[in-house]
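Re: that chain you flagged

S.,

Sorry for the slow reply, it's been a week of failed gels. I finally had a moment to sit down with the sequence you sent. For the record, here it is as I used it:
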Amino acid sequence: MAGTGTQVRVLEAMPEPIESSPPIKPDWLLVDLRTKGVAPSALEEFKKANPSCQLFLVAGDPRSPVAVELARLGVRHWFVLPLDAEEVRRVFRAALRSWRAAVDRARRESIEIPSFPDLIGQAPAFRAACDLAQRAARSPSTLVLIEGETGTGKGLFARAIHRHSPRSDNPFVEVNCASLPGQLLESELFGHEKGAFTHAQSAKPGLIELADGGSFFLDEVGETDPQVQAKVLKFLDSGRFRRVGGIEEREVDVRVLTATQKNLEEEVREGRFRGDLFHRLHVIRVRIPPIRERAGDLELLLAHYLAKFAARQGRPELRFSREAIERLSRHDWPGNVREIVNLCERLVLLTADHDEILVSDLPEFPGDRTTVRGKLVPEGKLRLEIPDRVTFDAIERAVLEHALERNQGNVSAAASSLGMGRGQFRYRMERLGMQEADDKPRAKGRGRRA
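Prediction finished late last night. Pasting the structure tokens below so you have them in one place:
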């Protein structure tokens, strides 16, 4: 339906048997009871496989025996022949409004973390990290170590812990340890006295002093050199420090939040990080899982950030096509949430002429290009060498693409070369979102809702 963001697929007959049909998962199903093979048993089986699908039926007489039997499946609307185009539009507009409201409500319920609204996700590992962060925010302990790969949101967690702690009315001060060399980092943390080093023409308080009463966030703490690590440890043990070049001890009351993308235990074993400081830091240890470990969260995050940037540009209806979501789900997301945010912002800016993000709008992801090597071994068996994190779908897709390439895009010949029928080959292509090369182009908008 043009302009609604929906996708329509037309079938000339009910799939029979249901097991051999393409994996259709519609939100709505509009059925003309005059269609070949439309029997109550076929629709009942389809409804069992798709319990959330809403039925719209076209009948000459809704009081006929077949229509009466189908009514028990739950029919949202009966269209009586001859069809009234205005009635069809009105009914489906109302259904679309209802569907979108339900989706929005479900999304809000699934992604909102109580009291942590900036943290989005429903994967158990991510929820567990958020729960621990919430408890850390309420606890009297001043030390929290946040671990996670680049782009997972360590800074967001640190700010959320501060905002929901008893210190929230006081300063939140942060420093990235990786951005400053050792002596300069020491001066930034603890301040310096006049004349402490060249160009120190006046005394300067350190960031830790400025955070007094609040929270101090040491990002990438694993990048600090041994001299700074020793001074940080002394401060954590006593709450006291001296400015660079000073003799007076100063005391502050701060909660220290630290974050790292390094494995600090390994850094300790390798002698690059002090073991005593590591054990002092992880009084409360929060690990944020990467996107590849957050099953189901990718689509939520893509939808959230696309809607966020679209709203800024006055485009509230922008959404990803199902094929685009399937393509993005095969990406490894080494940049995690930061990579998702950057992608969504870019897509909003570069796709101003349509309301749906298509596969053709997506950038190349060079890191996704992996090679599966195979060779025949005795007894005709095939031995595969598969890189880490390559999914079975990726392997199956590569096999189908290779067969098509060898057979110049001819689906029948490609299927035969793999010892399968054309229908089975097409089913696998459709499941993986592949376009048929030797068929006539099909209308855009093939997808979930009909």
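What I noticed first: The radius of gyration is 30 Å.

Talk soon,
D.
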